[in-house]
Design a protein that fits this description.
The chain has one domain: Alpha-Beta Complex (Nucleoside Triphosphate Pyrophosphohydrolase), CATH 3.90.79.10. It is built from three helices and seven strands; from the N terminus they run E-E-E-E-H-E-E-E-H-H. The chain is about 20% helix and about 40% strand. By secondary structure, it is of the alpha+beta class. The longest helix has 13 residues. The structure holds 8-OXO-2'-deoxyguanosine-5'-triphosphate (8DG). The site of 8-OXO-2'-deoxyguanosine-5'-triphosphate has 17 residues, from strand 1, strand 5, strand 6 and helix 3.
């Protein structure tokens, strides 16, 4: 029988402007994770380069043209028994704080470290801790 297992690769940005990190809240209607806060980004399309994929997703989701600085960490987990996600998270810098949301998200926030800890999911916070994201010098 043909396996229906699936692996998807997603890229996410820890986007920094004036010491704060941009997080976005998923639209309440979203069946998966509606109302939860996350970093900006999404799935790579076939044939795309990693950084161009991230730049495209960031432009689509928040209308910002950012600079990709470096890879922070990679992580993987299953979202259901047949679907595994691999996430690559990059540090990005933005000269502008003027985010313009798509329909996917209902709000955005430029968060301090303290606010990130309060708003992001425990899974993301664990990955941030494990990979020293809170120790990045530029963060407030
Ligand atoms: N453990 C962990 N989870 C993360 C990190 N970053 C991140 O976005 N997540 C979570 C938030 C989302 O629930 C999930 C992203 O999963 P996904 O690729 O299925 O994205 P999605 O739900 O937007 O997919 P879709 O609706 O567009 O199909 O991963 C991270 O660094 N660590």
């Amino acid at each position: 029988m043909k396996s229906s297992n699936k692996i998807v690769v997603a890229l996410k940005g820890v986007i920094v402007n004036e010491g704060r990190v941009l997080i976005v809240q998923r639209a309440k209607e979203d069946k998966i994770g509606g109302g939860t806060w996350e970093c900006v980004g999404g799935k790579i399309e076939f044939g795309e380069e990693l950084e161009s994929s991230l730049l495209r997703e960031i432009k689509e989701e928040v209308g910002l043209s950012v600079t990709v600085e470096k890879l922070l960490y990679a992580t993987t987990f299953k979202t259901d028994p047949t679907r595994q996600v691999v996430i690559l998270t990059y540090l990005c810098s933005s000269d502008s704080s003027n985010a313009i949301l798509s329909k996917e998200h209902s709000s955005f926030k430029w968060a301090t470290k303290e606010q990130l800890r309060l708003l992001l999911s425990p899974e993301i916070i664990t990955d941030f801790e494990k990979n020293n994201v809170f120790s990045i010098e530029v963060l407030n």
